[in-house]
Amino acid sequence: MRIVVDNGPGKGRRGAAGKRTRTAPSVALRPAAAADAPALHALIAAHLEEGRLLPRTLSELADHAHRFTVAVQDEQIVGCAELAPLSGAIAEVRSLVVSREARHSGLGQRMVEELGRRARREGFARLCAFAHDPRFFVRLGFSIVPHTWVPEKISHDCHSCPLFRNCGQYAIVLDLERAQAGAAAGTALVNRHG
Ligand SMILES: CC(C)(COP(=O)(O)OP(=O)(O)OC[C@H]1O[C@@H](n2cnc3c(N)ncnc32)[C@H](O)[C@@H]1OP(=O)(O)O)[C@@H](O)C(=O)NCCC(=O)NCCS
User: Fold this and answer.
1) Neighbours of 92 (CB within 10 A)
2) What's the CATH code of the domain at 58?
3) For a disulfide at 149, which of 33, 116, 145, 191, Cβ 3.0-4.6 Å?
4) Looking at ligand 1, which residue's alpha carbon is closest to its atom 47?
5) Predicted confidence pLDDT, tens digits, the chain (194 residues)
């Protein structure tokens, strides 16, 4: 992944574009638990329109809480992101949200990095996302690809979606193997925790 060594909260970091990003002091990442479902639900629901996010039910979030990484500040969940498997080879970043007060300090990037580390540990070769505005992901090294390059998503979700072929979303993919090789060759800024 073309991202950065995670210096941890409060330290300076440099993003993929070489731009210095700010890290929020005292914001920790941790895996979510079922007890976090109400907070996840509230956070996602509050940003549905802005992020054009998929609505999530409380019970679905409780069932899938273990897939989420959350950002916690003063015991409040201020960010979340889900690693949702589409097949044994590819997992999707879903429900990525950072509360407005906590934005622009690198939390979104840190959570995607964390999902990338988990995805590699769990044996996925690629990460993908689907977004109306792909720029956040492109900045992190993802590439915009035709939807047909992610047939797992089409069969998993798109066929049953009323907006199939007309959703206006970009498919964005990160090849974890290639990103890791780029990191080893020193040609990309990549987290090295994986
Ligand atoms: C996208 C989001 C998660 C980013 O969270 P964040 O913690 O601010 O992210 P980071 O601090 O790691 O990175 C911020 C950078 O990402 C880029 N970025 C973020 N959102 C962007 C957007 N909509 N368009 C273009 N660039 C964007 C910018 O370069 C920004 O840099 P800046 O802080 O100098 O302005 C947050 O804006 C959010 O929750 N948005 C609403 C929900 C949403 O859109 N989710 C994604 C759906 S696919």
Assistant:
1) 25
2) 3.40.630.30
3) 145
4) 51
5) 544 334 344 334 444 434 445 655 689 999 999 999 999 999 999 999 998 898 999 999 999 999 999 999 999 999 999 999 999 999 999 999 999 999 999 999 999 999 999 999 999 999 999 999 999 999 999 999 999 888 888 777 777 776 777 778 999 999 998 887 776 776 544 443 43
HEC secondary structure over 33-60: CHHHHHHHHHHHHHCHHHHCCCCCCHHH
- Looking from the CA of residue 111, the nearest atom of ligand 1 is 12
Q: Is residue 194 part of a domain?
A: no
pTM of the model: 0.85
Q: Choose one of 40, 68, 113, 136 to mutate for the ligand 1 pocket test, by most ligand atoms within 8 angstroms of C-beta.
A: 136
Please give the residue range of the domain that contains residue 62: 13-184
Q: Name residues contacting ligand 1 (CB within 6 A).
A: 47, 50-51, 96-98, 103-109, 129, 131, 133, 135-136, 139
Ligand 1 atom nearest the C-alpha of 132 is 48
DSSP class of 75: T
* CA–CA separation, 181 and 64 (whole Å): 31
- Residue 3 inside a domain? The answer is no
Does residue 193 fall inside a structural domain?
A: no
Q: What total of structural domains would you count in the chain?
A: 1
